[in-house]
């Protein structure tokens, strides 16, 4: 999902049959040009349809691209990493400095449902991006996204919205890192952010 600098507010649903929606999520981006939304939706077995709804209104249009990647599962690429276990009701926070241009996030369960919220902030109570997801079987339909984090330091929060009986694994890693000195933010006193 991408816009011309305007907010994005959308609902995305994967339909296997008219009455079975195994995964759905809502996405809010403050600036859809600077922080477009990218995700890989795993679609095992069955025929499927992907539905994308603009919930913001016609004043805030956005572009959608849906492409078959023919890639393996997201878990295969991160299997060697150690995940954080996020218990039901728990909040996990991750802070990334200005050199991290994007973050990859994989949320996955073992045969259980998954309800989570992901927030990206650049200051107190400044949600630049919010993703709420619901998957009936988080093992068959894990959630993988690459979140753009341009500018200053960013905090990523993952909130398990289920009860304690429904934990999930969270893989959170930098995806793109800028290594040149121009990317560092000078705070004016010689200290780097």
TrEMBL record:
InterPro entries reported for this sequence: DiatomPyrShell
Name of protein: Uncharacterized protein
